[in-house]
Each structure stands twice: as structure tokens, then as C-alpha cells.
Amino acid sequence: MARTASLSGFPEWLPEERLVELHVLDTLRRTFELHGFSSIETRAVETVGQLLRKGEIDKEVYGLSRLQDDDGTPGSDTGKTDPHALALHFDLTVPFARYVVENAGYLAFPFRRYQIQKVWRGERPQEGRAREFTQADIDVVGDGDLPFRYDVEIALVIAEALNALPIPDFLLRINNRKLAEGFYTGIGLTDTAGVLRSIDKLEKIGPAKVAELLRSELGATEDQAQAALKLAGIRTPDTSFVEQVRALGVSNDLLEEGLNELEQVIAAAVQRAPGRVVADLSIARGLDYYTGTVVETILVGHEQLGSICSGGRYDALASKGNRKFPGVGLSIGVTRLVSRILSQNLASASRSVPTAVLVALNSDDSWGAAQDVAAALRSRGISTEVAAKAEKFGKQIKFADRRGIPFVWFTDDDGKHQVKDIRTGEQHDADPADWTPAEEDLRVHVTTN
Amino acid sequence: MARTASLSGFPEWLPEERLVELHVLDTLRRTFELHGFSSIETRAVETVGQLLRKGEIDKEVYGLSRLQDDDGTPGSDTGKTDPHALALHFDLTVPFARYVVENAGYLAFPFRRYQIQKVWRGERPQEGRAREFTQADIDVVGDGDLPFRYDVEIALVIAEALNALPIPDFLLRINNRKLAEGFYTGIGLTDTAGVLRSIDKLEKIGPAKVAELLRSELGATEDQAQAALKLAGIRTPDTSFVEQVRALGVSNDLLEEGLNELEQVIAAAVQRAPGRVVADLSIARGLDYYTGTVVETILVGHEQLGSICSGGRYDALASKGNRKFPGVGLSIGVTRLVSRILSQNLASASRSVPTAVLVALNSDDSWGAAQDVAAALRSRGISTEVAAKAEKFGKQIKFADRRGIPFVWFTDDDGKHQVKDIRTGEQHDADPADWTPAEEDLRVHVTTN
């Protein structure tokens, strides 16, 4: 990345950088569709009431108001917020839950969808954290119930999707809220949400300070605090975490259910995505709508970037009267990944433009004939542009070179065609009706460096 | 469309409707890339100062403010607008001009880009007019100058792109501001922008009222008003408009330049996009940054929908000190088109999900084996999902039917594979390593009804 964003937190890419992003987006889409996920988009805008239903994150939300409308400002003088005011969505899960409830009568459940869109958060920008960024989500939502198997499947699909991207090794760190909450209840800590919030700070503030928090804010004894920390310290690449948890000697039904669920996810991943998944009992996830499986993902060697893919099971996010729509999903931070790929030059595009061929102009009158050549090439999927002016051939070749176009096409006054590979200088006769470049030159390719 | 948007002016599609939209977006992208246009995206957010630089449209802009930030509201009590405040872009041309100026050092000119993004306008929603909608733009921008030939090319590329969409006949109505302004000057009307604004109302209020406007607001004589209306009445499918304009007996250099330019566009279109283009001298375009070619596009039989593709030449939108970046571009109203396709059922998807095959479960223990089958099919590009529960086969088939999945795969306890086309009931042996559905079932197709 040669440039910095002209508005902090709102990154924009140059055309050759955008090709890398497009490759990431296309790869995710292809993987998701291969697994039967339907594309949907939700509007960028939700009501403030809808967005803040789950609390916690109101500080990050951008409200909307019509510039010339004196009354419609969401943050009005009274300091109160009108729940009907409009605001930009800060993730894709909350809008998706709203969409499912609104359209339940038109969807076939379990409903599997992917959603790739921009989201906005008014946070202080820093590396890996933008104010406008793209997320790529997959979720499966059931009507009434949703088999646990989808928790396993979602993790496997995401591992396959990430694996297809031009990124370094990644690791899904998976935990289960039932396991954690059952354990805390089993040792006598009843404010399980509070314990989770403290444990969530483990990587930032360390175990000593977390223990202090547990004692001072949640009334935990030293033994309780140490037991909670011991649980959070368990991390295994296989299902051996089950034995390690049992060795802590805590007995609770919810804990057993959580152990069983997490064991299923890890067992399947060991077999189907070896080396990509660990059971990590320190994972808590800040957002309070998760009720079972929770996932964060690190890019190995880029841990300070934060999680590149997060999510989990939410059994109570969406409901319509008594009808519940439990779901499970994961969200890839596309902008975070692409920013890192570009800033560290991890991958790049084989050329900077889609164009494979520039049709040169012999004279200004030959523009029509040149368009005929271009149309013939395009009919076989060859991206082609026609020069706008009949400059000297050297200048037209230089133009192609500057744009990153590999081939220049010449047609002389007698209608004889030749094509030149301007990288090698090689030039030979060619017929617009059948010439095709080599596969690696036909389309732009993105490869890891 | 079975549903109405839950927030007026913010349309959302059901999954099978989204497939139609995706087809439109994919088709446009493919056409643009075949013509060598690079993809870029600009941030959704611009500063108010940047957006309002050209005036006129401030009423339609959505300002942004952080919900918990008391000071940052763009429409503050003073009634004035802070030019550094943030707002959502209302089109893609103004942000593109800003992007070109900021990144001029990194772009190869003439720079050709396509940009497909959402834009927002706080207008009163009505048929064909949403508050959040997708535009698909192509533009070519030069450094210092831009050959007129790009005006011709842009019109041809757009005609090809629209032609590839599942929509009824369309007609590009093309005019040239130089022609109109030169003519007005030639007959002694010096406030040419004012005349254009009046002529722009022709379809809405009719010629008598436009004549009245010209007389009362622009001080035109009856003869001048009638001459301006005569010009606006010229509409030819070929270059014969040149003779008709000349017959009005007005002489002016700018008029000659405009006649020559429009003649070039129409002559090329007659040859390369026959029946798709007319010279229509009533086209004015409201926005004041156009300086030459101007285009609007009607969908034949759906004229009341308004223009589905508009734009033109702008020589002075982007500049950096003395350096000018003239451009020409056209913008397709994707949401307007897709809304119409869906509401009138003009086209539809061959099925409602990407999935071609559901792998049924023989028993709950067979999930792993079913995943192996699915992986084998996916490796050949066949979208496949695995049932989550080993329900009775009838129930699993019903599930596939409800989702719109054409094939169900069965593997018995001996490992024998069969695949059933649930539309015909036909079932036969199949090998996961080489079975492939017919081309029309492999992927979702969108066709006109």
C-alpha cells in the first residue's frame, strides 16, 4: 500500500489492490455457494431500536439524519435516542436476524445464507480496525430448533473458505459457552456473564488481574478465581480437553452438554480440517447473544491483528412471538485480511488491469476495424480495449506497458493481423477469429508471494 | 415480489430474487471487464463539503453522526452544515472524481474504471426511486485531455451491457450540451443553464408551459422560446438530426462542435448498436457538471420508470491545481432495473438455491461418509449440502423439494450410491468421483420469462 486513506478509518484500494480484494471475495463466494449457501443482502440501515436491542455497543453506531432536516437528528439535544431513527449496521448478524423474522414465511428452514457487505463502526481507527469495512458471513438458522451438527459444519466450511485464500496459516480457536457457564455455576459463580466478561480480558490484562477482577467485582473466592483461570488455560489441538476439564472435578449438567458439543466440533475438525482448529477454553466473545459454540480465529504470525473470523451459536437472537429462530454463524473480517495481505505484500495480482489485449490504431480511420477485432476477441472471453488515438506504435505500446496490458494487436492497411507480447517482444501473425492467449494471461490471477 | 420493504425506500430481496440481482451484477461486471474497465470501490462516506461542491442536491443527502457524540451531528442547531462532517454519497461520479484527484500519481491515464456500489438519497420513496440503491458506473478519465472517442465507446459498452441483461428493449437517448448551449447562444439566449433547466421539464409540464417559463424567467421572446422548443423536438434514429438542426438556420461555433460530436456518437451507434440509440435533442440532464454528451435511457414499454442509465461528459468535475481530469461515464440504475424485473416477473432464476445436490443421511453415523460424497462432488464444482438429520428418506426428499434442490444422493449401508432427480423421480446408480448433472442443472440460470 503506497497511500494512506484520505479519511482515517475509511480505506480505499488502488485498482491493482482491488484485484486482490476481488479475488478474496470471489473465492469466498464460490466456497459458500458450493456448500449451498444463498446470497442475501440487507439494507445498510436499521432502526436504532433494532441495533441497540442487545445493548453494549451503542457508542460505535453511526446515526443518520437528512442534512436539511432539523428534526431528524438521532442524537438530539435531549441526549435521548429515538428508537425509530436510522443508523448504519455495525455487523451482519443483527440485520440477518431481523431479516429472518420479517421473511420467515418465505424462507425454507434450516435457512443457509452468506452475506458479504460493508459495515460501519465509529471506533478509533487503528491497524486492523477500520470504521468502514467488509464482512463475509455465513449462518444457518432454524425454525424452532437447529441441529447441533450445523455448528460442526459451519466451522468446516469456514476452514475450507479461509484455506482457499492467499493468506498465511490460520487457527480457529473454539470454545463453548455452555461448557464455561456450566463450569462457573458448578464452582458456585452465578454471574456467569460477568465471569465471561472478565475472562475475555485474559489476553489483554493477564491472569493476575483477571483473578483480581473476579474477586473484587464478582465476589469470587481465591479458589473460585483460580478454578476459572485453570479452565481458561486449557487448550488442546484434539479432544483431550475433555479429560483435562474432567480432572478439575466440577460436575454440572450444562458443563456436560458443552463438553459434548465442543468434543463433536473438535473431533470432526481433527479429521476434516487437520491443524486448523484448537479447543481453546479461554475464548469468551464479548457480544452477549452467543449461547453455545464460540469461535475466534488468528492468523499465525499475525496474532496482534486480532481475530480474522469470529462468531458462534445464538439460540435467542431472533424470535417472533413464541417462535424462535436459533442460528449459528461465522463472520470473516475481509477488510482486515485484505489490509494485511496488501500492507505485507503477502499476495498480488498477475497484472494491474483486466485487459489482456490493446488493439493499436493504424490510422484514426481504422477505429471501426479495430473495434471489430476487439469484438471478435471479447467473444472468446479475452478482455480487450482499443486505442483512442492513432499515435506512433511506440507510444501505443508504451501506453499498454504503463497500463500493464501484456499484448498489443496490430492490423496493417492490407488487413494483416499481428499480435505482440510486449513483455518478450515476440510478435507473430494472428487471426482475430481464433487467437487466444495462454491460460495464465487470459485472466488476472492472484497468487501468494 | 411478495413482500413490501419493512422500511420504505430500503428494498431487500428474498434469496431467489437476489439470484436475479446477482445475475445482473455478474453480467455487468463481465461486460465491463471484457472492455478493460478496472473495478474500484470508494468509501460510502464523503465529507459534506465534497458532496455539496456542486450544490443543487443537498436536500437528498444523509449526514452521519456517532450516536453518543453530542457535538458531531452534521445538521446542528445553528442550521449550518460543517463541511468536514461526514455524509453518505448520493452517486458514484462525485466520489470517483475525488478518488482520481487523490490517487492521480498511482493511476495510468486514460483511466477506465467500473464501480458497482450502493448509494443513498433521502428522497420520498416511490416506484423506481429508493433511498438506498445500487448503481453500476463506467467512466473513463483523462489527465489534461480525453479524446472524444471515449464518448462513443462508453455509449457502445453500455449498450452491450444492457443488451446482455434480462430486460425488455431499451433506448439510449443522446444529446450534447455544446449543441444545445451553442444553439441558445446563437439565438441570443445567454443564460444557457437556465434554458437547459427549463427544457429539462419538457416531459413533465409540456411545451406550452416550458415556453412560458422561457419567456417569464429567462426573458426569451416568443420567437426564441419557439426556436428552443423546435430544437428540443428533434429526435432521429440516425444522423439526420444534423440537417434538421441546420434547417433552423442558427449559426454558432459551439453548436457546430456539438453537432459534430453527437453525429460521431450516433453514426457509430447506428452501425454497432442498431436500434438502441436515438439522437434526442430534448435531453438536458439536471446535474450541472456535464459539458458535452448527455445520455438518458428508457426501458421501452416502461417509460414511466424514468431513466435506467444516465450520464455524460464532464470536463471540469475533477481538478488538482491547474491539472484537469476530464471524464465521460454512464451509470446504470441496478436497483431500479431489478425492482422492475422482479415486480413484473420479467425474468427468474432456474432454482431458488445454489445447491444442486442434497446428500441424504442413511443413519446419524453416516454424516462423515456423506461429507466425503459432498466433498467429491464439490471438487467438480457441484454445489452440495448434507442433510443434518437421518430422517426418513421421504422427509429428506421433501426437504430438498422445499429448498428447490433438484437432486438427492443416497448411499446405502454397503456403500452403493444412487442419485435421484426429484423432479422426474428418476433414480440411478452414480459414482461420487465422476457423476455430474446436466449443464442446465449444474448452476443457477436466470432467464427472461
TrEMBL record, chains A, B:
Keyword tRNA processing: no
Sequence positions that bind L-histidine: D91, L92, T93, R121, Q135, D139, R285, Y289, Y290
EC number: 6.1.1.21
UniProt entry tagged with the keyword Cell membrane: no
UniProt xrefs under PROSITE patterns: AA_TRNA_LIGASE_II (PS50862)
Gene Ontology terms, MF aspect: ATP binding; histidine-tRNA ligase activity
GO cellular component, one term: cytoplasm
CDD domains according to UniProt: HisRS-like_core (cd00773)
GO biological process: histidyl-tRNA aminoacylation
This protein's UniProt keywords: Aminoacyl-tRNA synthetase, ATP-binding, Cytoplasm, Ligase, Nucleotide-binding, Protein biosynthesis
Protein family membership: Belongs to the class-II aminoacyl-tRNA synthetase family.
Name this protein carries in UniProt: Histidine--tRNA ligase
